[in-house]
Amino acid sequence: MLARWVDLSESDASIAYSPVSLAELRAAALAFLALTCVPIDRGTGRQAGDYLRRYRKSHGVDLGDALIAPSAVVQGAIVWTRNRKRFPMRELRFF
Predict the structure, then answer these.
(1) CA nearest 48: which of 28, 18, 22?
(2) Over the stretch 2-21, which tens digit does the pLDDT of each residue have?
(3) How far apart are CA 24 and CA 46, in angstroms?
(4) How far is the C-alpha of 38 from the C-alpha of 19, rounded, in Å?
(5) pLDDT of residue 6
(6) Spatial contact of 40 and 53, defined as CB atoms under 8 Å apart
(7) Does the chain have fewer CB atoms within 10 Å around its N or its C terminus?
(8) What is the β-pairing status of strands 36-37 and 16-17?
(9) Directed axis angle between helix 63-75 and helix 42-59, to 10°?
(10) Residue 67 has pLDDT above 90, yes or no
(11) What does DSSP say about strands 93-94 and 16-17: parallel, antiparallel, or unpaired?
(12) CA separation for the pair 60, 52 (Å, rounded)
């Protein structure tokens, strides 16, 4: 997986992240200054609530996961995660 990150970081691709990811990274004392923060708006919140209602019990989706998913969909972004179980949303694409 590290090799894929290196390839991505050396490409011209735009690398985006959710404010939820930023909070998780800052809590772990990590910072990715070269990344673009993806905004969360009312529509994202609405979709996140739908995802929570649908997948919280069956897949362990928490608020952060539920907000990241619609943000990725709206941005046309590819989600990079080690825990795909918490992202059962069919419209997501994964790295």
Answers:
(1) 18
(2) 677 778 777 888 778 888 88
(3) 22
(4) 7
(5) 73
(6) no
(7) N
(8) parallel
(9) 130
(10) yes
(11) unpaired
(12) 9
- Distance separating alpha carbons of residues 83 and 18, to the nearest angstrom: 16
Quick one: which of 25, 35, 70 has its CA closest to 87? 70
Whole-angstrom Cα distance, residue 46 to residue 73? 13
What are the tens digits of pLDDT across the range 11-59? 888 778 888 888 887 776 555 566 778 889 999 999 999 999 999 999 9
List of E strands, the chain: 16-17, 36-37, 78-79, 93-94
CB burial of residue 55 (10 Å; 0-12, 13-18, 19+): buried
Per-residue pLDDT at 73: 93
Domain ranges, ordered by start, for the chain: 14-94
Ranges of H-type helices in the chain: 2-9, 19-27, 42-59, 63-75
Q: Would you state the structure tokens that stand for residue 13, as one six-digit string?
A: 């691709």
CA 60 to chain centre: 15
